[in-house]
Design goal:
With about 375 residues, the chain is of the alpha/beta class. The protein has eleven helices and 16 strands. It is about 25% helix and about 20% strand. Strand 11 and strand 12 form a beta hairpin.
């Protein structure tokens, strides 16, 4: 078993902290942080990956460290890349700088790298170790990891409900079940996602913009340049071609600040949409859009994390097709009554053996509401193993 010192843990914890600065900007690339230090914990350089096509975390750290990098240890949250992409290989830069040791939290799941970066370092005489704070590093890039391993993005379904489990009144009114702090928390999740997905019924009923209101997030301007902030792709499922072009999210904004829209339907819409709206015709499965093919398409588009804000029908369809990785429920201390709308619209369950089991990952209070995060029980077991 690999032995790590207290200083190793401290330096990798700092690298993970640095990597988090890129959560709003790096997609489709992973979030990566790097610290270069000596064995006593003296930090010579640190950095994080900020945006695809720009220098990786190791390059920023090496530049800051300069000559002090020679003989030092580089702590990086993800195995250094070994191939030429939009930037040169980081493994080559670490070798050229003369570091004596590289500690990676995890091996890169990208088949273009996966182990090759560490091997290249070893062949150059650099000591390498991996697995330090691996769980924390994997949590940072779970969408990237899943896409690399399965071809599909990580899917989080967000739900908001009353204490008695209703998402809206019988007439469809739902604004606002939760309070302002919960809605601000949703903005943070949107900002970290590559795409926000919704269905035609929800979009017609609520007429949302489905964009990120960055002004509400109080992000540190010394860490994030405004030009690097991005708007997630807005993905709208419209199997019956019922979305009118007059909807807010289908209208262009000044300098397209709200981002692009991908309209997924079965046949091309006859509406004339603005330039920021593109269409893709998905195959059908029965009389519904094939959601598995939709997820394959989103993976091909290099989308790592999908944030779903949808009604009971689409949420239920994703559930029954086993396409959900995580559920986040904001529950407000309000009572709507039995006539309200449910969280999921699914086929009736007749035996307890068919009930979906979940495991809690986190429960906390956000403002006056509860935020509950859960994953499926079988996935929880797989993670534990």
């Amino acid at each position: 078993m690999t032995q790590f010192s207290n200083n190793d843990f401290l330096m990798m914890a700092r690298a993970i902290q640095l990597a988090k600065f890129g959560q709003y900007t790096t997609a489709p690339n992973p979030n990566v942080g790097c610290v270069i230090s000596d064995d006593q914990g003296v930090v010579f350089g640190e950095g994080w990956h900020k945006k695809a096509g720009t220098p990786h975390a190791e390059i920023h750290a090496l530049k800051q460290a300069g000559e002090a990098a020679k003989g030092a240890t580089a702590y990086v949250t993800l195995e250094p890349c070994s191939h030429f992409g939009r930037t040169p290989p980081c493994a080559d830069s670490l070798i050229a700088a003369g570091v004596s040791r590289v500690v990676a939290a995890m091996v890169d799941p990208n088949p273009l790298v996966s182990g090759n970066g560490l091997r290249k370092l070893q062949q150059a005489g650099i000591k390498t170790q991996q697995g330090l704070l691996q769980t924390d590093a994997e949590q940072l890039n779970r969408g990237f990891i899943k896409r690399m391993r399965t071809g599909r993005p990580w899917v989080t379904v967000k739900l908001a409900a009353s204490l008695d489990g209703k998402t809206a009144l019988e007439n469809g009114q739902s604004q606002w079940i939760t309070g302002s702090q919960a809605r601000q928390d949703v903005q943070r999740h949107r900002a970290k996602s590559c795409a926000i997905l919704s269905g035609s019924g929800t979009v017609i009923a609520d007429n949302p913009m489905l964009n990120v209101r960055y002004a509400e997030l109080n992000l540190s301007k010394d860490k994030l340049a405004q030009q690097d902030l991005r708007q997630p792709l807005r993905v709208l499922l419209d199997g019956r071609n019922q979305l009118p072009s007059s909807l807010k999210c289908l209208q262009s904004t000044e300098n397209n600040v709200a981002g692009k829209v991908l309209l997924i339907n079965g046949r091309r819409s006859e509406h004339q949409f603005e330039k920021h709206v593109s269409q893709w015709q998905a195959p059908f499965k029965g009389n519904k859009l094939d959601l598995e093919k939709v997820m394959d398409k989103l993976g091909e588009m290099q989308l790592n994390q999908i944030w779903v804000e949808a009604g009971a029908k689409l949420a239920g369809a994703l559930l029954q097709n086993k396409l959900i990785d995580e559920l986040i429920l904001y529950q407000a201390p309000k009572l709507i009554g039995s006539a309200g709308q449910n969280l999921f619209d699914t086929v009736p369950i007749e035996t307890m053996q068919d009930v979906t089991d979940l495991c809690w990952k986190d429960i906390r209070q956000v403002g006056n509401d509860l935020k509950m995060t859960a994953v499926f029980a079988n996935e929880h077991i797989n993670e534990a193993n």
